[in-house]
Each structure stands twice: as C-alpha cells, then as structure tokens.
C-alpha cells in the first residue's frame, strides 16, 4: 500500500483521537446529565461508517469512541429515547444496503448492540422497523450467519431481536410463505424456518444469544396462529429434551428453561393450563432447582413461579393505603382525613380453586429464598409476592409465617437476606396486614443490625441493606397512623445504621430509607432537621459519619441513647480494629451529650468488658473507657469542677486498677498482646489528659515501665501510641524537675544506642515528644544523640531508613518546642552552633538514596522527612531572627529542594515543589534569583498546579537551568527522571528538556553541555546515576536537541561525551548498561568523523561480545542507524545485508570473520584480542 493511500485512514484515526480528547474533558464534571449532547458526534461516526474506510484499525477506533460516548449514559439511559429512532434507522440502513461491505455491515450491528446494551432490549426492540417486507430479508440474513462464529455474535443478537418484533405482525404466517422457486424447489414454510432459527441459537454457548433466541421463540409460539400447532410442539419437545438431559448440559437446559419462563409469562393462561402439571413435574427434578449453575437455577425459579394455576386477581383482603402523594404529608391533618385508607373489604364468596401442586411451588420458592446466589433469592421473593396476592387471607398468612421462620439463629445469612427481600415485596404489594406488623417490625429491626463474624471477615452487610429496603417499602405501603407506634424504634435503628454501619452501601441505604419515611410518613422525630445534614452523600465518609454526623444527630435527645447504646453493645466489640477505634472516638464526642448516663451506665459496662478474655471486646473496651473518662474530665474542666465531682471514688479506683489487673492476667504477653498494648497506651494517654488525681508513685512507675517497654515493640502503631502516652504522662505527672525526669531521659538516650531498629525508632520519637520543661538542662545531650541517629552508618544499619526518618521527625519537633537563640545555652536552647549542625545534617539527608532490592528507593522517606523538617525550621528561624540564616544556607536549601522537585517519585516531587514555592514567597532572605523565580512560580498559578503531574511541574522547573545557582542540581534531578523507569515521568521530563534545548541559543547550549559533562565527572561510580546518565544521554542524542554541537568538528563535546560513556560502562557485565552503551554509540554516528570512527570501533567490539542478546541489539540498532543517518559508510547496502542476514546468536568464533568483513566495509580497523595477563 502506498503512503498516499494511508492518509485517509490516518486522518480518520486522528479525528477520532481528537474527539476522544475533547470528550475526556467533559467526563466527570457532574453526577447527572441533562440530555444526550453527543448527537453530532454520533451522526458523524455513523456517517463515517457508511462512507469511510473498512480498515480494521479505523473501525475499531471508531467503535471504541462510540462505546465510550454511550457508556456515560448507563445510569440515565432514558436520555437516549428521543434519538433512538434516527440512530436505529441510520444503522439499519447501512446494514440493509447491498453496497455495504461485510465488515461495515457487522460493524453497524455492533453499534446497534451497544445501543441495546445501554437502553435495554425491551425498549430498543419497540423502535425497530417491523413491516411485512422486512420478514424474509431479516430471516435470510439470520440464516446466513454462522452460529459458531464468536466474532459476529452482535450481528446474530440484533437479528434475533429484530425478527422477534417482526414476527408479531397481525397476519397469518401461511399467507407470507415464499412462492416456488427454481426447478420445482420450494422453501420450507416460513413458520418452520423461524422456529428452526430460534432453536438453533437456543443451544449456543452465549447467554446473550440464548436470551434473544428465547425472546423470539416466545413471541412466535404465543401468536394466535401458532398456539395450536407450534406451542404444543415446542413444550413437548422441551420437556422431552429436559428429561433426557444431564446435569452437565446446563447451557442447553438454561436456554429451554428460560424460554419456557417467557412463554408462561407472555402466553394466555387458558392456552397454557394444560401444560402446567407436566412442566411442574419435570421441573421438580433436582437437576434443575439444585443445579450448580446459577443461570439454570434462576431460570427454574422464574419458571416455577409462573406456572399459572391461579387466576389473576387482586386480593380484596390486602392493605389499601389509597392516595400516596407526598403533598398530602405537607397539608394540615384536618385536610387529609378524607384520604385515609379504607378498611379492607370482605372477600368475595367466589371459591378459590387451589390445586395441591400449589403447596409444592410455594415450598420451592421458599427454598429459593435460601439460595446462595442473590439473583435467585430476589426472583423467589418476587414470585412469592405474585402468588400470595392471589391467595385467600388464611393461606397468605401461612406463607408469611413460613417467611418469618427464616429469621432465626439456626438459619444462615442467605435465609435472612431472602426473607428481607420477600417481606419488602409483600409490603410493597400491600400483602402485610396490621395484625402481623408487630412481628415483622421486630424481625426487621434485628436484621438492620445483623452482623456475624466469619474468620477475618463478617457477613451481614447485604442483610442490613435489604432490611433498609424493607423500611423504604414500608414508608410507601402503610399509613402514618398505622406505623405510629413503631416510628421511634425504626427511626432510631435507621439513624444508627446511617452513621455507624461499617459499609458505605448500608449507610446510604439507611439514609435513603430514612428520607423516604420522612417524606412519606412525616412522623420521624426531627426528620427534616436530620436530613438537611445527614443525607445520602454525607454518609459516604465513615470517619465523618462517626465523628461529626453522629454528634449532630445525638443533639436530638430522641436519638442520643440509641446511638450510645449501639456503640457500647456492638461497635466497641466489633471484629474490625478500625471500627473499634472509631467507636471509642465517637463515644468521646457523644459523652458530653449525656454525661450522667455515661458515668452511671457506660463506665460500669466498659469496666466489666475491659478485663474479658475476648480480645476484641477487651481492646475496644479499654479504648472506649479511656475516651469516655477523658471526655468526662473535659466536661468537668469546662464547668470548673474536678473529675471526682462527676465520677465516684469507687469507680475511679476501678479505673486506676485496670492496668494492674491486666498485668496480673498476663494479657501483655502472647496472642493478642499487640492490641492490648496499643489499647493500654491509649488508656494511659487519656487518663493523663483527664488529669486523674491521687495516683501513687507505684502506679506512675508501672505506667512508665509499660510505655518504655512498648517503645521498642515491633509494631509501629503500638510505638506511636506509647510515644503519645509518654508525652501526656510527662506533661501531667512530671510537672517539676526531679531525679525521675533525669532518669527517664537517660533511659531514653541509652536505649537510643541499642543496635535494634525498632528500639531506635520508638525512643527517637519519644525524645521528640518531650515537652520544653522536660528538655530543660538536657538539650545538649538529646540533640547530639538524635544527630548521630540521622547519620547513615554502615552495613545493615545503612538500610534503617525508618530510624533516620524518626530521628529527623523528633529533631524537628524539638526545634518547634524549645527556644532558638543565637547565643543561647546549649543545655536548654538551640544556639547558632547547634542550628548549623542541624541544618547540615538535614541537607545531608536530602542525599539519602538508600535502595533495597525488594522495596526500591527506600531513602525517599528520609528525604521527605528532611524536606518537611527544613521547611518548619527555616520558617521558625526566620520568624525569630533572620540573621541566623546565612546566604550559603539559603542557597543550599533552595537548590536542593529544586533538585528534589525534579526527581522521579511523585510524592517526593510534590512535597519538594510545594515547599520550594512556599519558601520562595516567604520572607526567607538571600534567595538567589528571587525576582526571576517569582515570575516563573507565580503564587496564584501555583495554587492550581498539581505537582504530582509531571506535565505540569517539569516545564516550570526546567526554566531554572538558565540560572547558574540552580542549574547543576536541577539538571541532576532531570537526569534521574529521564533515565528512570517510570513511564509517564520519563515521557514528560524528556519532553520538557527537549523543548528547553530547542529554545536555547549557542551560549546556553554550551553552558548546558558543560554542566552535563560535570555530572559525569562528579559521579563516576555512583550506582543510582550510572544507568540514568546512560539513558539520558541516549535520549539527548536521539532527540537531536544537541545536534548542532555533536556534528560540529570545532566543538569537543561529542568526543568527551563518548569517552565518559565508555568509562562508565567499562568492564561492566550488566545487560542494561551494555545495551545503553550500544544505543549511545549508534546515536553518535551522526557526529563528526573522529567521534563516528570511535563509535564504529566500539560497535565492532559489541558485535562479538560474549552475550548473544547484546550482539543482536547491536546489529539491529546499527541497521536502524544506517537507515537514519546518511554517509556513515560508503558500502551501506552490503553492510546492511550482512547485518540482516547474519545469525548473531551463533558462536563468537564464527562471527569474528563476519565482523571483520564489516570493519573492512566501514573502513575501520578490526578489533584485536588482548591476552589477559
């Protein structure tokens, strides 16, 4: 194909890509769409399909565009309705046209399928053309399809649906049979051909095609002219096939069962009554209702509930609410009295004809409520609702009792869920009478809180969700006066689920049910007030639900006790650790709503639970106990009273004795010790904050020993809780200098020297948490100890990045706590000398690139901690005395931050950029090129930049290469990014540097190359930079940003670069470095003659190295370079022929003569073997 013939295709692809980019801008702008706005794009895509190329790539790109547009209407498919007619007509006209090629025809049917997928086939099929003239062509096209062709299934699906709407034309099919054709040959009757096609696709493996075929057969056999002949034939054949089928034939079984279900749904009862018993008899075979395939069981449940033994009727005994308008709830009571429901009318005298098989059907549906698959339980629930509505009241009550029996402790979660769905369906249909409402309500309230632990997870979320649906259905089903006596319990339970459920779907379901009850019933206490804050969207955040929304709801006294009791009874002992912690924090906030209840009831229960053997119960109770006592202490403080005024001495004594009792019971050792230690540390912290009085020295010593023991514990969460506990304990109980203070600090510093990673982390953080009063007279010892921890060290200690990070954080906290003075005493203040040591250590930490084979660049946590510490310390020093900040220090801070803002890890790059911009616009003195940089980094523009996006950050920082104070460090950071392996970072950093080089004049290019070579000189053996420099060099040469300097014989940049690269990869055996060297040598073939000859000589060496992979890569890249660069060698055709035809995986001995021949053709000396001495 010529290049010109490819241009239309490429133009089409470019147009599609452009439309997709414009479309991406709109996606995600809102939750709801107002109309179908892509009309013109769809028209253009359909027009291109009709008139454009049939190339596979173009068709696929257009299809993806079409799908992407329609997919955004999955939640609002009705927006397509005004446009369905012209979309379907346009696509069908393409499919019908005799001039349409096969590929385009199938593509049009794919478009039709995706329209059907979004809008659903029941709606789309009504818009398909259904004239008599369409019958034969559509049937012929369907017959011509290969049902085993899995690539054309969309075409077959649409044709089946199209035929199903055509087949219901109001003419006898015998009148439409084709006339004899050919030499006396006549086609089969039209009806037989339609039936044959439907049965053919009923046996295929695709469920989608089976559904369409079943729909077609259903519409055909229920025609008036097919009921007497084809309906009995199909049902008898189906029963015969089902009786002979095995359980493993689930695909065909499912197709037949689904078709029968549709037939019994759409067919007339009188026509089907004869076949009900034979079908039921066959269906009760265990291989159907208990089949392992979900689709087979679902079709069986659908079929068994549609066996029409009972006549359609509206039960006269059902509950009738009458007018359900929301407006009635807003009118005064006296205006709505005449709209209240009437009493149920007495049943008619007409006898019910109830066959004995009905009991078996209901039993199977009740079993379906227990099925393991939700779709089957849901179908069974709807079936019970349909049948119950046709039963007399006495039998309907029996059905309800059977459903209620599912809600017991012996049944599993599937039964509870199915029962909830069934109750909702019965309530929605008005089949739950007031006599049963008390029992049903008590069951649903239990279901709203159902939660059973199974190993490391729980079951119950779907039950709670279904119970919310029942409450939602009750709001629509019953009159407000009939639910009045249950309102308080239902409202309280829904509020509890709204704010305290673990699963967001349950919280949202409860919010929707609460809102429905407020709107329909109008009797929920403070319903409108609650809904204005606690709505469907507000409860999406579990932290906000627990800690903010629950406090708001608890402000209404009707809900306060329900929320508190639920936390104490269920959430404090929850199986999920995070829920227990959130529950404790929520109790802290709710205590102030009813302090007396918390003191008299909650504390008593928590004290008992805190020493239980159950780990979850013990952990949650200790956490909650500490939070409640702290909250009571805050209330007492706000009222100007002591905590002893609110909590009696006996209870306080029990509170103090919790930790000794836990120690006696040996709960700090063995299984579960981690959670107990964590809870006890939190407990100590909260008691200290609550200012518990009258603690003796033994108790304080016990607390201190537990904290010190936990500081070296191997779990970080335990360590952090111990650090917080130590800080609170020292603040409350070590108010004056004493020997105990000195002993504590000495102990912390001693343990900081232990060669144990976790010990150093914990004790470093502990030193950083001490108050100013505690650090007085000890600062001259603490600061050097932490500075020694920040040092990298050797051996295994070098990889203890978490230790260095913790030490930096501790040092930063100390700098925020103590005084900073230029001539201050080192014992209690940070003076200029100490400050200089701290800054030196922090700046050195910015070069921590410790790497680990499993975790990669683990030094990033140290660099991030150092950057944060530098920002805080610089800001504080600037506020106190800007004279403490020297010009050299400012320059070092800014250029190092600029380097970090150019490196490859997103989090570090984002943090560095934010700190750099903040310091640039602060009062920090001596910033080099401050005015020019402020022009680049304007404050308002920087607020809108996402620094994690490399396409936004690199173009700004790359401009700093123009300023000598920053150029080296910025380029060093860029080299790491371009030479890395993070694709999006490599792409955008390379693009930014290439764009910068293209805009540079000769002077700037010379400066750039000088700095670039300087990086090579300064880092000859730095492992992390070796490959990065090689990859960056290759990209610089390929991008031709330095082409003018490389090709010039008067500039020695290319020659120096070649020598440095060769020195970098000398004696290496790493594949990636060798292949990078090959790429650089091939790229240097564009250079002047001296460098080109050197590069060809090195390439000749690579052609015979010991690694076959390197030889292959070298030959391939040399071949590409000879195509790309002109006048490299004179005998280019022969050289390229040798390169392409030689098997470079052969032995090196056989390849040397070939390599030497290439050297002759390239006019360079052949490499010679050098004997090793």
Quick synopsis:
The chain has 1173 residues and is mainly α. Helix content is 66%, strand content 1%. Among the domains are: 92 residues, no CATH class; 162 residues, no CATH class; 146 residues, Alpha Horseshoe (Leucine-rich Repeat Variant); 87 residues, no CATH class; 173 residues.
Overall description:
Keywords: Chaperone, Membrane, Transmembrane, Transmembrane helix. The chain is mostly helical and 1173 residues long. Among the domains are: 36-127, no CATH class; 572-733, no CATH class; 736-881, Leucine-rich Repeat Variant (Alpha Horseshoe); 886-972, no CATH class; 1000-1172. It is 66% helix and 1% strand. It has a two-stranded antiparallel sheet with strand order 1-2. Strands 3-4 form a two-stranded parallel sheet. Strands 5-6 form a two-stranded antiparallel ribbon. Strand 1 (452-454) and strand 2 form a beta hairpin. The longest helix has 24 residues, at 3-26. Residues 1-13, 20-30, 179-185 and 333-346 have low confidence and may be disordered.
Annotation keywords:
59 helices; 1173 residues; disordered N terminus; two-stranded antiparallel sheet; single chain; two-stranded parallel sheet
């Amino acid at each position: 194909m010529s290049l010109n013939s490819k241009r239309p295709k490429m133009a089409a692809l470019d147009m599609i890509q452009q439309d997709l980019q414009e479309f991406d801008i709109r996606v995600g702008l809102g939750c709801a769409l107002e109309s179908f706005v892509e009309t013109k794009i769809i028209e253009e895509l359909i027009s291109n399909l009709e008139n454009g190329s049939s190339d596979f790539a173009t068709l696929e790109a257009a299809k993806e565009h079409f799908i992407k547009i329609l997919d955004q209407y999955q939640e609002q498919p009705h927006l397509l309705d005004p446009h369905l007619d012209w979309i379907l007509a346009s696509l069908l006209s393409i499919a019908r046209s005799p001039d349409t090629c096969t590929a385009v025809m199938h593509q049009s049917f794919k478009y039709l399928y995706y329209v059907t997928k979004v809008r659903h086939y029941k709606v789309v099929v009504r818009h398909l053309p259904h004239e008599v003239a369409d019958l034969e062509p559509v049937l012929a096209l369907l017959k011509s399809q290969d049902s085993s062709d899995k690539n054309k299934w969309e075409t077959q699906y649409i044709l089946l649906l199209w035929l199903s709407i055509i087949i219901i034309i109001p003419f006898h099919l015998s009148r439409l049979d084709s006339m004899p054709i050919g030499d006396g040959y006549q086609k089969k009757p039209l009806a037989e051909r339609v039936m044959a096609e439907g049965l053919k696709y009923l046996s295929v493996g695709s469920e989608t095609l089976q559904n369409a075929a079943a729909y077609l057969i259903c519409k055909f056999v229920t025609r008036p002219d097919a009921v007497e002949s084809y309906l009995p034939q199909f049902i008898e054949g189906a029963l015969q096939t089902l009786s002979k089928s095995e359980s493993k034939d689930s695909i065909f079984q499912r197709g037949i069962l689904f078709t029968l279900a549709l037939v019994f749904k759409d067919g007339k009862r009188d026509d089907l009554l004869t076949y009900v018993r034979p079908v039921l008899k066959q269906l009760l075979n265990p291989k159907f209702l208990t089949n392992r395939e979900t689709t087979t069981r679902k079709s069986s449940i659908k079929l068994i509930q549609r066996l029409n033994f009972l006549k359609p009727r509206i039960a006269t005994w059902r509950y009738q609410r009458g007018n359900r308008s929301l407006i009635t709830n807003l009118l005064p009571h006296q205006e709505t009295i005449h709209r209240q429901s009437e009493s149920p009318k007495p049943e008619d005298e007409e006898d019910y004809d109830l066959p004995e098989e009905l009991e078996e059907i209901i039993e199977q549906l009740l079993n379906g409520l227990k099925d393991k698959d939700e779709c089957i339980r849901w179908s069974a629930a709807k079936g019970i609702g349909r049948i119950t509505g046709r039963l007399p009241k006495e039998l309907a009550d029996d059905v309800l009792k059977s459903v209620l029996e599912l809600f017991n402790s012996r049944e599993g979660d599937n039964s509870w869920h199915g029962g909830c769905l069934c109750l909702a369906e019965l309530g929605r249909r008005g089949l739950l009478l007031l006599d049963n409402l008390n029992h049903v309500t008590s069951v649903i309230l239990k279901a709203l809180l159902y939660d059973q632990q199974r190993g490391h997870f729980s079951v119950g979320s779907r039950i709670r969700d279904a119970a919310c649906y029942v409450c939602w259905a009750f709001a629509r089903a019953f009159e407000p006066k009939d639910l009045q006596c249950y309102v308080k319990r239902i409202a309280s339970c829904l509020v509890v689920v709204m704010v305290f459920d673990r699963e967001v779907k349950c919280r949202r379901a409860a919010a929707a049910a609460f809102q429905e009850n407020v709107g329909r019933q109008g009797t929920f206490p403070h319903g409108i007030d609650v809904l204005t804050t606690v709505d469907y969207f507000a409860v999406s955040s579990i932290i906000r639900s627990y800690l903010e929304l629950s406090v708001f709801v608890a402000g209404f006294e009707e809900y306060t006790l329900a929320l508190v009791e639920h936390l104490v009874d269920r959430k404090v002992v929850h199986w999920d650790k995070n829920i227990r912690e959130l529950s404790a924090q929520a109790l802290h906030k709710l205590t102030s709503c009813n302090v007396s209840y918390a003191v008299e009831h909650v504390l008593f229960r928590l004290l008992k639970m805190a020493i239980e053997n159950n780990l979850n119960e013990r952990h949650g109770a200790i956490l909650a106990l500490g939070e409640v006592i702290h909250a009571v202490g805050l209330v007492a403080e706000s009222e100007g009273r002591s905590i002893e005024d609110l909590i009696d001495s006996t209870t306080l004594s029990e509170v103090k004795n919790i930790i000794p009792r836990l120690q006696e019971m040996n709960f700090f050792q063995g299984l579960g010790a981690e959670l107990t230690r964590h809870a006890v540390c939190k407990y100590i912290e909260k008691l200290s904050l609550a200012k518990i009085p009258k603690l003796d020295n033994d108790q304080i010593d016990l607390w201190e020993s537990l904290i010190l023991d936990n500081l070296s514990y191997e779990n970080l969460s335990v360590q952090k809780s111990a650090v917080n506990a130590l800080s609170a304990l020292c603040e409350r109980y070590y108010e004056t200098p004493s020997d105990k203070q000195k002993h504590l600090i000495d102990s912390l510093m001693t343990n900081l020297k232990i060669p144990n990673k976790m010990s150093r982390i914990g004790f470093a953080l502990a030193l950083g948490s001490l108050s100013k009063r505690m650090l007085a007279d000890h600062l001259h010892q603490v600061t050097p100890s932490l500075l020694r921890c920040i040092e990298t060290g050797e051996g295994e200690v070098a990889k203890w990045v978490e230790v260095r990070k913790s030490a930096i954080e501790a040092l930063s906290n100390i700098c925020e706590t103590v005084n900073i003075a230029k001539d201050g005493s080192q014992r209690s203040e940070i003076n200029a000398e100490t400050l200089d040591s701290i800054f030196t250590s922090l700046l050195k930490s910015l070069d921590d690139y410790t790497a680990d084979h499993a975790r990669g660049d683990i030094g990033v946590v140290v660099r991030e901690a150092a950057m944060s510490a530098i920002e805080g310390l610089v800001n504080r020093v600037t506020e106190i005395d800007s004279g403490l900040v020297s010009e050299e220090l400012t320059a070092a801070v800014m250029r190092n931050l600029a380097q970090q803002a150019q490196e490859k890890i997103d989090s570090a790059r984002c943090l560095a950029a934010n700190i750099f911009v903040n310091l640039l616009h602060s009062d920090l003195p001596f910033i080099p090129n401050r005015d020019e940089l402020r022009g680049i980094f304007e404050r308002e523009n920087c607020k809108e930049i996402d620094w994690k996006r490399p396409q936004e950050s690199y173009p700004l920082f790359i401009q700093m290469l123009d300023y000598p104070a920053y150029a080296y460090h910025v380029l060093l950071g860029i080299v790491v990014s371009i030479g890395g392996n993070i694709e999006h970072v490599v792409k955008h950093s390379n693009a930014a540097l290439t764009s910068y080089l293209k805009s540079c004049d000769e002077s700037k290019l010379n400066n750039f190359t000088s700095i670039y070579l300087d990086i090579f000189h300064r880092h000859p053996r730095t492992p992390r930079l070796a490959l990065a420099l090689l990859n960056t060099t290759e990209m610089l040469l390929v991008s031709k940003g330095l082409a003018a300097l490389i090709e010039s014989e008067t500039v020695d940049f290319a020659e120096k670069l070649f020598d440095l690269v060769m020195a970098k990869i000398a004696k290496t055996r790493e594949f990636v470095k060798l292949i990078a060297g090959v790429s650089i040598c091939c790229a240097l073939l564009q250079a002047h003659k001296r460098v080109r000859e050197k590069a060809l000589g090195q390439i000749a060496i690579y052609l015979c190295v010991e690694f076959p992979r390197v030889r292959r890569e070298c030959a391939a890249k040399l071949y590409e370079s000879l195509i790309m660069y002109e006048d490299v060698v004179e005998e280019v055709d022969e050289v390229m022929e040798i390169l392409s035809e030689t098997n470079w995986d052969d032995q090196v001995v056989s390849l040397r003569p070939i390599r030497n021949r290439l050297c002759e053709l390239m006019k360079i000396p052949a490499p010679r073997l050098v004997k090793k001495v």
